[in-house]
Automatic annotation (TrEMBL):
HAMAP family per the UniProt record, alphabetical: Trp_synth_beta
Gene3D superfamilies in UniProt: 3.40.50.1100
UniProt keyword list: Amino-acid biosynthesis, Aromatic amino acid biosynthesis, Lyase, Pyridoxal phosphate, Tryptophan biosynthesis
Enzyme nomenclature, EC number: 4.2.1.20
Full protein name: tryptophan synthase
Alphabetized GO MF terms: tryptophan synthase activity
Reported cofactor(s): pyridoxal 5'-phosphate
Pathway: Amino-acid biosynthesis; L-tryptophan biosynthesis; L-tryptophan from chorismate: step 5/5
Start and end residues of each Tryptophan synthase beta chain-like PALP domain: 122-460
NCBIfam families registered for this protein in UniProt: PRK12391.1, trpB_rel
Reaction(s) this enzyme catalyzes, per UniProt: (1S,2R)-1-C-(indol-3-yl)glycerol 3-phosphate + L-serine = D-glyceraldehyde 3-phosphate + L-tryptophan + H2O
Role description: The beta subunit is responsible for the synthesis of L-tryptophan from indole and L-serine.
Family note: Belongs to the TrpB family.
Amino acid sequence: MAQSLFLSTNLSPSRYIQGEEQWLGCFALKTKPSHLKLSSGCRIRANAVCNAGFKPVEIPRQWYNLIADLSVKPPPSLHPKTFEPVKPEDLSPLFPDELIKQEASTDQFIDIPEEVLNVYSLWRPTPLIRAKRLEKLLDTPARIYYKYEGVSPAGSHKPNTAVPQIWYNAQQGVKNVVTETGAGQWGCSLAFACSLFGLNCEVWQVRASYDQKPYRKLMMQTWGAKVHPSPSTLTEAGRKILLLDPSSPGSLGIAISEAVEVAATDADTKYCLGSVLNHVLLHQTVIGEECIKQMEAIGETPDIIIGCTGGGSNFAGLSFPFIREKLNGKINPLIRAVEPTACPSLTKGVYAYDYGDTAGMTPLMKMHTLGHDFIPDPIHAGGLRYHGMAPLISHVYELGYMEAIAIPQTECFQGAIQFARSEGIIPAPEPTHAIAATIKEALHCRETGESKVILMAMCGHGHFDLPAYDKYLQGAMVDLSFAEEKVKASLARIPQLVSRGEANV
């Protein structure tokens, strides 16, 4: 493949593609804040779309807020003690002021700070790639594209929100942040962002992942973070869980409880969340905004958009800008969320107010939930283990703008092997769910003869998830049956709330 390098002083790298030739862009930062320590050398990266004659696509300069375009607004979050709608001052112990404003914003677009754009330019725009070899393998008339977020320093989409979250904290003079992480992608991304802006980072990692993925822990430590297995003895929430179950594998809900407890009791510390909340989904919309322009540049319109869902941030990041276009009557794609059968909050959960954490310290959110103390089986290979779904995605699902399916993990890894052996990229366990659903749809197109355009969210690589691949390749991976009784017991413990109108009947 012929390659040529160009120097550019623009914010976004120069990018040109002609036929099967791929031209790489090399750039220097236009501005460099004094507190941001970056290499002054040029960085080289590929931005690939396998089509000729398209114009360069720049990094979006605004995040998109879907709430502005919804005629029916999502229900408010509620205070965990008073059950009244959360006020900005209720969130101030956890988040900086600007993120609190973004959480409740109804503005359609929010400007991305220049300093954040400068960091984004380390890896953005991310590639939109046509999976021609996978199409050939499947012998399908469908055209498959994937938006690949694995080119970020942390290897996933998570820095899209980690960077602005830490920047806003730094602007407010915050010195310490705490968070939780499941598979480790979010913890790595936050540690990376903290290393750029000089904040201290402390991470509670779900015990099952802490043990299974030591290199994620080492990535966090390399970027300067402290990492604890969760549940831990460092917090009251962790100690209570260990008292009940000394061998607890942990869960995201437990890890959130531990991190929130530390932030809520320390005036010098704020909390960061990698998914679920509105401001997190907002930041991720750089994915979809870029992708719309990239698809327009190659003259394609998606018929189907597919993404994996755990908390929902990568799915929202790709799909929300396309939902805007759908609401405006410009396109009409089918939008499909894919979740694991081991933790199927959309397809098996209930739409109700529930806590975002196990200890019940967070606000109550109206979402699809399996119950705040639901703990997925630790042998599930992916990081999609959160008990609930992002409230905004849950709301969009209830409005009928998207659909959801659940796929067992052996089928997901079968698809991942097909993808890796045709496209070359080893996917993280999370997007294997989207890959499996995409393969299903592509094979259906082979049966019907339809040449649909399938757009898939490819949210990260699996270089630190190879033990899961080893388990699959050795034939040791098993599908997990959905534990109806376990979920019923968990759902029985969610708060039973009624509206004032219902109470007066």
